[in-house]
Amino acid sequence: MTTRQDAWTKDEDLLLAETVIRYIREGKTQMKAFQSVGEKLNRTAQACGFRWNANLRKHYDQAIELAKKDRKQLGRQRLQTFEEEMPKQESERFDDLIAQLKRLKQEYGEFEQPDKVEKLQEQLEAYQTCLSQIHHLTRPFVNGYKTD
After folding, report:
1. SS3 track for 23-76
2. Is the pTM of this model over 0.70?
């Protein structure tokens, strides 16, 4: 009897089973597990999925159920931790935002005053008028010589 070159070894089967069960426990998809194992074993994700569903899955029913229970328990723990830390994190973020807004208001608040904006606009117009006059007066001169 000959063995196929692409036949699965016991170590490859074990790696596939352990990875799929770990991914189930962590709440990840089986497809991601197949992709991960496929990269390690130089096989396609489809080949890994077929191997799992056709040959291995039925041998790991108990491990799959335990992984699902662990996932649920882990999810509950994460939710509880999130709920406990959420108000604290939100209030800290809001305090930071308020402080930052106050700093910005102090730095840029002077530009919000309408009379200062008007004065700056008037100064800008005066400078533009001066530049226009200078340009008009210097236009007849090119390289220091008057061109009439």
Report:
1. HHHHCCCHHHHHHHHHHHHCCCHHHHHHHHHHHHHHHHHHHHHHHHHHHHHHHH
2. no
104-124 per-position pLDDT tens digit: 777 766 555 667 777 778 888
Region class of 144: left (phi > 0), else alpha (psi between -120 and 50), else beta: left
Q: How far apart are CA 44 and CA 60, in angstroms?
A: 22
State the DSSP code for 118: H
Read off φ and ψ for residue 3, nearest 5 degrees. -105, 135
Is there a contact between 72 and 40 (Cβ–Cβ < 8 Å)? no
pLDDT band at 97 (very low <50, low <70, confident <90, very high): confident
